[in-house]
Amino acid sequence: PLEFLFRLGRRQCMKICEKTKKRRIELGLTESDISSRVGLTRSEYSDIELHEDELYTVTDLCRVKKICEILGFDLLELLEQKCVFCEEGVSLAEVFLLPLNELIANRRREMGISMDELGERVGFYKAEIENLEKNLTHLETWPIDYIKDLATAIDVPIQILINVKCSKCGN
Predict the structure, then answer these.
(1) Dihedral in degrees, nearest 10, Cα atoms 35, 162, 86, 14
(2) Most exposed residue of 39, 79, 89, 147, measured as fewest CB within 10 angstroms of its CB?
């Protein structure tokens, strides 16, 4: 039911590439300046500005957040993602306030699916799902596209899984 909220569409990726490059140049920063602060090689950061899907499919969430911080972007705005709470009318349920690893484990159990089944839905082995459910910050190592797939699989807004609060409503 919430899947329409997670599909960012490839047409927006080029806009993101252009936005990141434009902002970097406006700030007088080099690719090396950003890459060293984010923990990427210059070539890896350059790929983000050159390839339309790099930010979604390769770069882990933790580094995407660091790039947003350095460039002064709000992650939801950069991704052109509407806030599900103030713009889509989704209620902030108590379950969304759980630590992410507990939220993922609880949603999986509520849906009656095994770790193996969830892994198959998002393209990972059971061991990766175990890591998600044990480690509070493990999801930060996933690229956004995989997090979108997880959000769809467990019917949780991606905004919750990427752990970003809306600048308008604070949720």
Answers:
(1) 50
(2) 89
